[in-house]
Amino acid sequence: MNQVGDRIIETENLVYAYSQDQEGETRALDGINLTITRGEFVVIIGRNGSGKSTLAKHFNALFLPTVGTVRINGMDTQDPRHLWKIRQTVGMVFQNPDNQIVSTTVEEDVAFGPENLGIPPDEIRRRVDLALEWVGMSEYMRHAPHLLSGGQKQRVAIAGVLAMRPECIVLDEPTAMLDPSGRREVLDTVRRLNKEDGITVVLITHFMNEAVLGDRVVVMDAGKIVMDDVPRKVFSQVELIRRLHLDVPDVTRLAYELDSSGVSVPRDVLTVEEFANALCGF
Ligand SMILES: Nc1ncnc2c1ncn2[C@@H]1O[C@H](COP(=O)(O)OP(=O)(O)O)[C@@H](O)[C@H]1O
Ligand SMILES: [Mg+2]
Q1: Ligand 1: distance of its center to the CA of 117 in Å?
Q2: Average pLDDT, stretch 188-203?
């Protein structure tokens, strides 16, 4: 097995300081060692200011390390020769869908990325059609993006990234500004891309019910990784999660409260279905 080939994102002792003054540097990232394997669905959580967005921006060379190394498919992000290949490999989706709209129709918007890559027009056409189909937005092809709902705008933003044929998508709180149905639309799309098309997903979220969808949950605090495990292992540590000013999924919290007050239920349930099954066992 080719080990390097399996690692799509790799950071080694990654330190990032926004500013260095006489007072010394403030480290937004303080020694991050993280490996993400091809095909994984990794969720990153952490309180505000813990460094999640700063880390995400290193994954497609928007930011370069102050100290340490970031490699994408083995390519060092510090090497300018790799910049375009890296940007093509890792696509980014941000929080505010309005900031990601660049054109007056949905199809032009999705075509923007591949146009910048210098892809021939007929290939762009095929990619745009396919990307819109993937996110379920084909019928809106000629619509004005700014008139769409938040969830639809984010799906168009995802299509724009998909049209560049990335191997990995990094989404930085893509559902933060959406209503519950918009959130579901985006999450369903992201899951499908991972499970059916094998695209590596890195999802930053502050919704713990979304975090349980990951194969792995990475917890950040003060620029460091403080937990990195499967969701069940992470969220069963309710006290630790709370000390980090985070919450656990609603169902896990309920199970924890019940168990603490003497009603014996398993503490590591993550979904409503699991909880129902556990209760039916009585
Ligand atoms: N543009 C910036 N200039 C200076 N400091 C920043 C800037 N952006 C973020 N920071 C600081 O870096 C740290 C990490 O921020 P960020 O990566 O945005 O965290 P998160 O996405 O987890 O909320 C915070 O302490 C924040 O104040
Ligand atoms: Mg952020």
Answers
A1: 30
A2: 95
